[in-house]
Each structure stands twice: as structure tokens, then as C-alpha cells.
Design goal:
Layout lengths: L2 H30 L2 H27 L14 H29 L8 H27 L3 H30 L4 H28 L5 H12 L4 E11 L5 E10 L4 H19 L1 E10 L4 H15 L4 E9 L5 E8 L6 H15 L4 E8 L3
Parallel strand pairs: 2-3, 5-6
Antiparallel strand pairs: 1-2, 4-5
């Protein structure tokens, strides 16, 4: 089954299930004069809306790339998740307002074991639906679907709070319905915040997926002719649309024709197997030369003593000018890059006074 079909079928199931559960809860809430039960029903109706939004967003995101959007419309799914987060948050705030009103102006309750049984059954259904929707969302890499599933699970927890509130009223004749509503609002607001935070991270631009990067790095480093790889950048244009770049180390004696042969084959392999359009930058290295091995050993000794330097690469000495090139990968916690650079240049000047050292400092993007 394709990704789009998984999302569509799961969303349709969510719409039908949430509408039925919402109708049952609203009827039970009206009969019991319970704001908590009615609020639950309204929240379930909102869940049906989020499933519809996921369905619409998936259809729009599947549009074919065009001249204005050559990478496609996949990021529409992130906008859909953003709207879903807003719907969840709005539902939570509405519930909070009604619950606070009820604290200052309480209303009589008429709760029965029948209404509680209805809520208990709906809680089980919502929890199972939530687990299923989240599973399918992760399977289809759909943040919107995962958000809907998480909200369904939070509804199940809300139902448990409602049941506890009702049992307290039945057994002790004490109404904590309004306070239960405040707690339920908090649970829903937390679910909305989680979806919002995850979606904003996708929209702002987060680090590329480590698992995907690891697969690509493995493919690159096991390719004959490539001595090393670093500086990978992955750009996400939707759940299954990626482009990226990476620098590869290649023996400086290789011809352009030889390099093209295996890099082009590798580019097609990555595109076919991982659906990533990858562009390569080339570092020329001379690992067979005694001077280069000595330089690498000297640089390695410096790196081992630096807490924030994670690795180094692209060591190369230009034959004519004797310029010595080195790249550092540093931790994001390092604040003073210039101090590190000055320290390293001084260290290298002591060991290689005849070479002009050119240091490039970078951070990892994935």
C-alpha cells in the first residue's frame, strides 16, 4: 500500500469513528448535565475535523512538481499539522474557559452508570484508535497523522479523568466536574503544544534524519574510489522529498573522467534507493605520501586534546604553494571559534613552519 493510501484510509477511519463517539458523548453529557462529558464530545468532533484536514493536506501535498515549486508540494503536510495543532489548542482553551466558568457558577449533575459505561467504552475505542493512527502515521512518515493519533490517546486519558470525576460525585455527592474539566483542558493543551513544537521544528529547519544520513554515508564510504566523506547537508521538502550535498575525499591523482564514473553511479543509486537528490563536492587528498600521513597524525594529536572538536578531514598540501588545508567538525557548544583557530594555527606553525595553514571550521548538519 502506498504512503498516500495509508494516510487516506486511516484519516477516513478517524473521521467516522470520531463523529460516532462525539455524538454519543454529547447526548450522554446533555442527559447528565455534565460539562466534562459534553466537552469531551466537542473535542471528539474536533478530532474528526483534524482527520479531514489530514486527508485534504495529503491530497494537496501530492501535487506534481512544477516550475514554481520544483521540489513539489510536500511541505503542505507540515502546514496541515500546524493547523491541526491550532485546532487542538483552540479546543483545549475553549474547554478551559467553560470549566473555569463552571467553578464560579456550578450546575447540578445527573450522572448515571449508563453514561459512565458509554464514556468507558469510548475511552477504550479512542485509545486503540490513537495507537493505530500513530502507528500508521509513523509508517507513512506523516506528522499530521501522528499528531491526530496523539490527540486521540490524550482523549482516552481525558475520559479516565471524567470517569473519576463522575464516580466521586456518585459515591460522595461532591461535584469536581469543573476541576476535572480544567485538568482535561491541560491534557488537550499539552497534546496541541507537542504537535505544534514538532511541526515548527520541521518548518524552521531541523537537523537531517540521522538514520537516513547514516545509510547514505555508508553507501558513500563503501564506494570504491572514495576515501572519506563529511559535511553532509540534507534539505527536507516534505516527508519523502529530500535533496542534499556532501563532500567526498578522493585521491588527487584521479582524473575527472574516473571521478565522474563512480560519482554519477553513486548519485543514481542514492536517488533510487533513498529518494535523495545528492550533489557531491570533492576534496583532493594524498594519503599515500609520507608527508601527508605525518600531518594527519600531528593534527589528530591536537584534536584529541580539544573537547569541542569532533573530527577532522580534507587534509591536503597544495604541491606548488605548499598551503596546508584542514577542516574541523566542532560541537555546537563551542562559542569561540576564533580562539580555537588561533590555537591550532600556532600549534601547526610550531610543527610545520614552512606551510601556510588554512583551517575551515564547520558544524554537523545531520
Amino acid at each position: 500500500m502506498t504512503r498516500d493510501k495509508i494516510i487516506v484510509r486511516t484519516s477516513i477511519l478517524g473521521v467516522v469513528a470520531n463523529i460516532l463517539i462525539a455524538a454519543i458523548k454529547v447526548i450522554a453529557g446533555i442527559a447528565a448535565s455534565s460539562i466534562a462529558i459534553i466537552s469531551e464530545g466537542i473535542n471528539n468532533a474536533a478530532d474528526a475535523l483534524t482527520s479531514i484536514l489530514t486527508l485534504v493536506g495529503t491530497k494537496l501535498a501530492a501535487r506534481h512538481p512544477d516550475a514554481k515549486h520544483p521540489f513539489g508540494y510536500g511541505r503542505i503536510e507540515y502546514l496541515t499539522a500546524l493547523v491541526i495543532a491550532a485546532v487542538i489548542l483552540f479546543s483545549g482553551f475553549q474547554m478551559l474557559i467553560e470549566a473555569v466558568k463552571l467553578i464560579f457558577k456550578p450546575e447540578p449533575l445527573a450522572i448515571s452508570y449508563v453514561s459512565l459505561s458509554i464514556i468507558a467504552v469510548s475511552a477504550v475505542l479512542k485509545y486503540v484508535l490513537g495507537l493505530y493512527t500513530m502507528k500508521k502515521g509513523k509508517e507513512a512518515t506523516s506528522e499530521a497523522l501522528v499528531g491526530v493519533g496523539a490527540d486521540c490517546k490524550s482523549d482516552a486519558y481525558v475520559s479516565i479523568i471524567t470517569i473519576i470525576s463522575a464516580l466521586v460525585f456518585i459515591i460522595f455527592d461532591v461535584s469536581i466536574d469543573a476541576y476535572a474539566g480544567v485538568i482535561m483542558a491541560g491534557v488537550i493543551l499539552k497534546a496541541g503544544y507537542d504537535v505544534l513544537a514538532k511541526t515548527l521544528a520541521d518548518l524552521i529547519g531541523k537537523a537531517g534524519e540521522k538514520e537516513l544520513a547514516h545509510k547514505i554515508y555508508t553507501m558513500i564510504r563503501t564506494t570504491p574510489g572514495i576515501l572519506g566523506a563529511a559535511d553532509m547537508i540534507l534539505h527536507n521538502y516534505g516527508p519523502d522529498a529530500w535533496s542534499g550535498s556532501v563532500n567526498v575525499e578522493i585521491d588527487h591523482e584521479k582524473t575527472v573522467g574516473e571521478i565522474y564514473d563512480f560519482l554519477h553511479a553513486l548519485q543514481l543509486k542514492i536517488m533510487h534507493e533513498e529518494h535523495v537528490t545528492m550533489v557531491f563536492g570533492v576534496y583532493a587528498v594524498d594519503n599515500d605520501h609520507e608527508e601527508t600521513r605525518h600531518i594527519r597524525k600531528t593534527v589528530a594529536e591536537f584534536v584529541r586534546g580539544e573537547e569541542f572538536v569532533k573530527s577532522f578531514h580534507a587534509v591536503y598540501v597544495e604541491p606548488e604553494t605548499k598551503k596546508l588545508y584542514v577542516d574541523f567538525i566542532v560541537d555546537y557548544h563551542l562559542r569561540d571559534w576564533e580562539a580555537l583557530k588561533a590555537k591550532f594555527l600556532s600549534y601547526m606553525k610550531t610543527n610545520f613552519p614552512e606551510n601556510e595553514v588554512v583551517l575551515t571550521i564547520e558544524t554537523e548538519f545531520v
